[in-house]
Amino acid sequence: MLVNVSGHVDEKGACTAIKDAAFPAPFVSGLEYNAPSRGTWNIVHVGMLIPKSHQIYVCAANCLRGVVLTAAEMGTLDRFSTIAVQENNVLEGDMEELIIEGVSDILEKLPQKPPAILIFTACIHHFMGCDLELVYSKLRKRYPDVDFVDCYMDPIMRKSGLTPDQKMRLRLYNILEPMEINKKSINIIGNNIPTDESSELIQIIRENGYELKDITLCKTYDEYLKMAESCVNISYLPVVIPGGDYLQEKLGQKHLHLPLCYGFDEITENLNTLNEYLGLSKKEYKDEKLAALNALKEAKEAIGDAKISIDYTAVPRPCGLARLLVENGFNVDRLYVDSFTEWDKTDFNWLVKNKPEMKVYATVHAKMRLLNRKCDEKNLAIGQKVAYFTGSQYFVNIVEGGGMYGFDGIVKLAGLMKEAFTFPKDVRKLIQMKGLGCDCLL
């Protein structure tokens, strides 16, 4: 049914009070709107984390536009190629030959062979029943000195099984092969942005004589391959859990998921889980907790009772951050979340009880294109999507937690909130920059 959207658009279906929100999916899935906030990473950005690797996308020309523009904006077109699927390939059924010969042609024309090739197939290959096992078998036989990784650009699969983001972070480590375990080496996996060196997590690793490996820190392909020797993989973003479990099974590396969170007790438990694994004494982290509380107090004095909005691209657990801020006197007014994760359920339930009128907005609902959601008064936005939807120039410009972790992360985030509320930003300019922080890998 067609709906007239030229007049007033109400919030029904795109906004709800948190007390009325269904968990984990408060909104009905349907026609979607894509807000022009581009700071989140896509598969091109993530794939480029493998040093010296080359990406090849195999799909219709129309689908190639976005990934080509991403590579161009990153200045990495020399590590990027495409193979266009045309109508005759569908009609003649030569999809396997197209990929094999297309990839071979690209490899022969490159100035030097890259150590790894990431091949991204698309929806059409699922529809056509393309024999990808044959494709990779032929390519590996033809080029035994190149590591081939099967990657996927398949939006049709994004709501069943592993999400595209989960798949990509798993494939990121697919090349690694079993090595002799080095008990003094530790990996942090699945992040696009390096973890702050000042965080308690990194301090535990560094101060106790362990070597830290992280794909965001790797400069050479050999450094990346040596991640296979570490005794443990630490992940803290929920999207990385399948990848960590995969590596535990394949390489025999212990997987410790120490989630990025904002509750003091949980942070302490996470840090002590690592301490215990490394044979260290548990700590209460009294000084660190006090520093976090003082930082929040300073931020509250600057921000006062101004409304605060948080979106899911800024932090993986927006309910957890909202709870921390509400507990410390902040006026958190809105969450922009299309669906919640199981990790946020406890804090979601707390907010339902203690902040029942807090609004939850969808970000992809079609009404969000026209809905009058601007805030008239000065308000603080945490995340790019919130900055766009509320129109606030006062926003914390981070994605995926911004590399901040633990009590140190809370101190830094409180500082960013205080700074953001003091100094306005050019929203239009900043939110259109793709892959916030992706220059860390170039």
TrEMBL record:
Task: Provide the Nitrogenase/oxidoreductase component domain boundaries.
Answer: 79-363
State any single GO MF term.
oxidoreductase activity
> InterPro entries attached here?
Nase/OxRdtase_comp1, NifE-like
**What Pfam families does UniProt report for this protein, alphabetically?**
Oxidored_nitro
Q: What is this protein called?
A: Nitrogenase/oxidoreductase component 1 domain-containing protein
Q: Name the species this protein comes from.
A: Clostridium carboxidivorans P7
Species classification: Bacteria, Bacillati, Bacillota, Clostridia, Eubacteriales
